[in-house]
Structure formats: structure tokens, C-alpha cells
TrEMBL record:
One annotated GO molecular function: transcription cis-regulatory region binding
PROSITE patterns hit by this protein: HTH_LACI_2
Pfam annotation, one family: LacI
Classification via Gene3D superfamilies: 3.40.50.2300, lambda repressor-like DNA-binding domains
SMART domains: HTH_LACI
Stated name of the protein: Transcriptional repressor, LacI family
Key words, A-Z: DNA-binding, Plasmid, Transcription, Transcription regulation
Domain HTH lacI-type residues, every copy: 2-56
The keyword Nucleotide-binding is assigned to this record: no
Organism encoding this protein: Neorhizobium galegae bv. orientalis str. HAMBI 540
Biological classification of the source: Bacteria, Pseudomonadati, Pseudomonadota, Alphaproteobacteria, Hyphomicrobiales
Keyword DNA-binding: yes
Amino acid sequence: MTTLQQVAIRAGCSLATASRALNRNGNVSDRMARRVRRAAAELGYRPINSAAGRPGQRPVVGVLIPSITNPVFASSLSSIQNRMLVAGHGVLIAQSNYDPAREADAVASLLNDRPTGLILTVCDPATSVALTSSLPPTVLLNNMPTSLFPAAVTVDNRGAGRELTQMLVGLGHRRILFVSGNFAASDRARRRHEGYRDAMIKNGIAPLEAVEISFLNGYDQLDLSAALATAPPTAIIASNDLLALGVISALRREGLSVPRDISVAGFDGIAIGRLMDPPLTTVEMPDASMGAAAASLLLDMAENAAPARHLDVAYMLRRGGTVRAI
């Protein structure tokens, strides 16, 4: 059986340093921590307290998502669990409910079980207080990498917003409204809106002021009467598909038809959008692939001391029956 002393010798450090690196309970440089983890992986060493501090329990990883009820995050989570199951890891789940103030508490809860590493989707990595230097190996999912957390699996949300808006402009639309969850709660939504503005300005069209609502409720009772009262839009882009469905419902309550009166498009590519009549126009995001990629990247970093990487995954614009040319 491999001992901690053998790991320390192979990594070229003291026994105490090797212990701190593997248990993540002291100051160890990132470079040394990677050397120790690589030595442990090469020697097949696993400390008995690496999984929640109790011998005999399998190791775990922690996953933070904004909402467990959103099909987008459910898809990513399913892929993460499948990948971790193959690797012999359990998965701990926490959700922030799109609340930046709850992220730190959620991450602290995950850390109580001393996970091998973390996969985090936060509201905004630039401002999240949950992202501290004391975290174990961490991969950001759906968030852009930062100098402190360079490991991330993302999609080009700004480019997606730009491409979707450009398609609508090409169909003759000039008054295009962007309806979104609160930008402070999702940098993904904010980047999609930035892409919308890019395309509008590039085409010499004044962007309309965005309508922001809560991500957690109000989709089924969305009121667009104020936005439709003066100079109504000919097209509406929603920051995600669930919100796009809420937009379509709100338009019908106003006696409007989609796409005859107003075109509607969203982001994500959830299955229910394909089951609609007509099918929803959307930017399909590879959520399952992104979850699997994040899990594999985390395992490579945590167990093989692989360097952090930024993986950018392709999206696909899928035109359905909810938009038309004017």
C-alpha cells in the first residue's frame, strides 16, 4: 500500500506539505499542490479522509447550479453525474436560486464534505464572493474563466446573441425587443444581450431598452402590455427558452399571434421548444456535452494535476416556426 511518505518523496516535499496539499487544509502553492496530486495519482495513493473525512466512503465532487428545475442545468447535471459515476465519484448538488448572496453559503456547504473538486455556475465570476483562493480544483461551467479560476467550459453567448439578432435583422425586423432575467443574476443573459446590441448597432438600428424580470417566477404571468403600448416590436428575443414560452403566452393574452404579429426567439434549445406548434426558434446550447466536458476536466485537474484549460463549445442556431420575414 502506498504511503503518504512515498508521495512526499516523489513530489520532492515534506510530509507535512504533502498532507496539506491533499487535505487542502493549509497554505500550499498551486505548483506544489499539482506536484503532490500528480505524485499521488501516479502512485495510486488516496488518503482515507479524502472523501468527507470518513474511511470507506467514495470521493465526491461538488456542483453549484442556479436552479435545479431549469432543464438546461438539469441536462448538464445529468452528464456530470454519469461521468463521475464511471470515475467512482459521488456528486453533491447545491443551488443558488440565481442569488449572488447565496452562492458563498452554497459553496461553503459543499466544502463541508471535502470534495475532490468543484464545478460551479455562478451569477457573475467577476463579482462572486464564493470564488476564493481557498477552493479545491474548480471548473467554471457556463461562466467565462478568470485569472484566479482559468478552468472553464463555456459557449460564446455574446456571439450567439449577435447571430440570432442578425438573423432577425436579415428577415426585415428593425424593432427587436430583448426580454431577459435580471442581468445581475446571470452573466450569460447579459452577454446574450450584449450580442444583441452589437448586431443592432452594426446595422445602424437603435437597440430597445431591455425588459428584465426575475429568473425564478413570473414567466407564466409576464406582462408585456407596457412594452407593446407604444411602437410595439416586430420581434422579441428572450434570454432563454423558458422565458420565450412565457413571452409567447403573454402575447396571446394580448390577442397577438406568433409569428404573424410578432416573431419570438430564445436560447438553450430545450426539448419542449421542439414540441411546440410551431417549434421555437432558438440557439441550441450543448448543455449535456458541456457538463461531461466540465466533469472530465475537473477529474484531470484533481487527480492527474493537469493544467487548467478553457474549453469553448460550439452552439447552433435552429430556426423554427416562431419567426417570419416582414
